[in-house]
């Protein structure tokens, strides 16, 4: 059976970004690009729930994060994980847009309305939003709200995702494969930097060929695999692989997923290790990712009564355990600015040609 969907223009008109929010997204994208290039010495922290299943509770979390973002703004650029599409290893809940009823039934028309409304509300907090683009066909409905994007470990080898990234007007993190291999993600960074022609849906709903210009701000994200890759050895290997591919040393490291064996209790250890590397002056570490939500842990999405404050996908660190980690990262970021190693790296760095995405 076929179900008609709204056009991107109709959905955007029903749930528009305010002019102030649209200006803020442009500023956030430029800031994130500057942090990745180390023209801005702060640390990027992409933090928030594994997935959004209850928009009101996720907005409550965003409010807490927005306060922390203001408090820590001298040292950190906090980006809210507003993930509404979930890639699955085999099957499972595929996110608020595809399955808004949390009942195993697909309802994209309702999910797009709910999802877009959530993203515009989340953008109104003033936070930059992070989003994983799982289905390229949905990108025209949401991309204008996003300031940092991910192509995930399960899709990083896909040509449509790489071509989408070459058009997306924000920095895009390419995650290493589930196997832990870096080469596929590095190839994705290279592919996304080039212009491509891709099929997409135009604002008025026509299937259209789009010429992209290439994304200068695609970068590698280390998320571990069967073994972690966040430690000094993993980071050094990633730097060598980037150098061999003639790519800049810009890295984001995910403390969750393969780097914590999907055990939220291990994320603090990973963050503490990363903070030590950062404080020691490692300027290739531009950002980190944390899966964090209101409460600690996860629940089964099939449960009869779902809690709004608990993840229904991967387990997350609760907010009260997240705040000390953000403080710790802020201190590490401050220390890095005065570390002799970072100062020497800055002096050696050629003037960047990368700029703000439109
Ligand atoms: O980030 C969330 C999950 O790791 C991802 O969606 C895959 O989950 P799965 O292996 O449970 O399908
Ligand atoms: C699915 C995710 O990550 P990865 O692609 O690294 O598994 C995620 O961040 O939600």
TrEMBL record:
Protein's GO biological process: amino acid biosynthetic process; aromatic amino acid family biosynthetic process; chorismate biosynthetic process
Instruction: Give every DAHP synthetase I/KDSA domain span.
Output: 35-323
Q: What class of enzyme is it?
A: transferase
Cellular component, GO annotation: cytoplasm
Region annotation (Disordered) maps to: 334-358
Q: What is this protein called?
A: Phospho-2-dehydro-3-deoxyheptonate aldolase
The EC number(s) attached to this protein equal 2.5.1.54
Question: What's the source species for this entry?
Answer: Nocardiopsis mwathae
């Amino acid at each position: 059976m076929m179900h008609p969907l709204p056009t991107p223009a109709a959905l955007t008109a029903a749930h528009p970004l305010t002019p102030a929010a649209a200006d803020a997204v442009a500023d956030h994208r430029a800031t994130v690009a500057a942090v990745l290039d180390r023209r801005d010495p702060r640390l990027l922290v992409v933090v928030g729930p594994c997935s959004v299943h209850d928009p009101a509770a996720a907005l409550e979390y965003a409010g807490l994060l927005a306060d922390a973002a203001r408090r820590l703004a001298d040292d950190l650029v906090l980006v809210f994980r507003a993930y509404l599409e979930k890639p699955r290893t085999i099957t499972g809940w595929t996110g608020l847009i595809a399955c808004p009823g949390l009942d195993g039934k697909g309802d994209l028309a309702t999910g797009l309305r709910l999802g877009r409304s959530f993203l515009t509300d989340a953008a109104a907090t003033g936070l930059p939003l992070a989003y994983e683009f799982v289905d390229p066909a949905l990108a025209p409905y949401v991309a204008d709200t996003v300031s940092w994007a991910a192509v995930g470990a399960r899709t990083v080898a896909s040509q449509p995702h790489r071509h989408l990234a070459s058009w997306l007007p924000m920095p895009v993190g390419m995650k290493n494969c589930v196997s832990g291999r870096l080469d596929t993600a590095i190839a994705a960074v290279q592919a996304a930097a080039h212009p491509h022609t891709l099929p997409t849906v135009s604002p008025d709903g026509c299937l259209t060929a789009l010429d992209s210009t290439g994304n200068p701000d695609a970068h590698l994200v280390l998320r571990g695999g069967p073994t972690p890759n966040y430690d000094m050895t993993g980071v050094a290997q990633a730097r060598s692989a980037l150098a061999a591919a003639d790519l800049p040393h810009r890295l984001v490291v995910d403390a969750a997923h393969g780097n914590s064996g999907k055990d939220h209790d291990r994320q603090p250890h990973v963050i503490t290790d990363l903070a030590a590397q950062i404080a020691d002056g490692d300027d290739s570490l531009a950002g980190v990712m944390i899966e964090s939500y209101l409460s600690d842990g996860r629940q089964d999405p099939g449960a009869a009564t779902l809690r709004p404050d608990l993840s229904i996908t991967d387990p997350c660190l609760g907010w009260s355990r997240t705040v000390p980690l953000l403080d710790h990262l802020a201190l590490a970021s401050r220390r890095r600015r005065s570390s002799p190693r970072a100062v020497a790296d800055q002096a050696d760095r050629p003037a960047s040609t990368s700029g703000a995405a439109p």
